[in-house]
User: Fold these one by one.
Assistant:
Number 1:
Amino acid sequence: MGKRSDRARADRVSEAIADLVVAAGFDLEDVHLRPAGRRTQVIITVDGDYVDSDGLARLSREVSERLDVEDILAEQPYTLEVSSRGVGTPLTQPRHWRRNVGRLVAVHMVDGTNLTGRIGEVDDKGAVLDDRRLRFKDVERAVVQVEFGEAD
């Protein structure tokens, strides 16, 4: 299958599971299909205010049932992976910034400037990084930094 047909199938999967994702309290970030031998690997990425392994496991079971009932993958065997956004995944939506208020973030601006600071207030147009207001349209890439606390 070509990339275009894989994207079309991924879009069909997205449409078929969107209500399940919302009902589970998550936002659907991405659906990606990747060949894996004779199978197709279906990778679903979600985000939410609170994402835990139990919630992901429940969603995975529901998604699997839906995919089987609606036969979206045309009886092709598949493996299913349902996971949350990784800690190193770039912040691309205002909701990503909101969910990370107070966290340390490294930002590369469109003008080439690099900044590091804590996320403060966030709205749909931008965020405050320490005492500096950033507009999202001026941010090229932003990634939360992993911080390790002092040993007790």
Number 2:
Amino acid sequence: MRLRIYNIFFLMVMAAAFLTGCTQNDGDIGPWFGRWRLDKMTCDGKNMDIYADADIRLVYWSFQNNIVRIAVQHDHDVEETTFGRWSQQDDLLLLDFTAAGDPVDNPGIFSPPAILHFESDEINRLTINEMTDSYLDLSYHGADGRLYQYFLKKVI
């Protein structure tokens, strides 16, 4: 009888831990949470075909709390990773890569990947054209005067 009570108690504790587990640090950030794959990118309406470069295999953005991680995967499992802060104001996604003090062993960790044409010394304002739980369409007027558009699909 004592073993049965112990087993029931153990199962209840495990069920409680499972049901109250947390997957999102510091609360719910809605549909932003997760990993988004950059499927397509255009410049002034023309496809940039970023994956035509044999060296680039995947570009993805990950959102959690107020941190964005943008990673560019290259051949031979080499990954260029950068971090910034993000926030949403109405129909704008604000990406901030102005943090200073890159670690000596990882320079450029707070600089956006060059392929995206973002600025590292100012807050980048992207217009949210369309957003669902699994699809994201953003546009950005670059410092070079061109209009970039990013089409992302949630993968996790």
Number 3:
Amino acid sequence: MTAPTILIVDNDDGMVAALSTRLEQSGYSVVTAGTGAQGLAMFESHEPDLVITDLNMPAGDGITLAHRVRSKSDAPIIIVTGFRDEYREELRSVAHVSILRKPFETNDLLDLVEMELSLAFDRSAA
């Protein structure tokens, strides 16, 4: 079985590098993008199993990206943000999205990734 592919979309290069390293060390394949628009292009070309995106980015925010991903796929989406309350209503309009508030512990993200991938696998096997 091939390793699940995770798309990380964030305009913070340090965050992308840290998450990529940790996820790869945990056995995942990782692709990255720095904007929502690049994230959508990477999603379409790589068809990842899960998307981790920042909420507030230039050139396409995380909510727009989540809507576009959801229109094409049931892949789990994890939004990492420090702005959860400000976007609460908009986030409710996207199905199957998990929210992780910044700052967060990397192990919490890894646990959430594992849980979301397991749930997605269970849904596709049903």
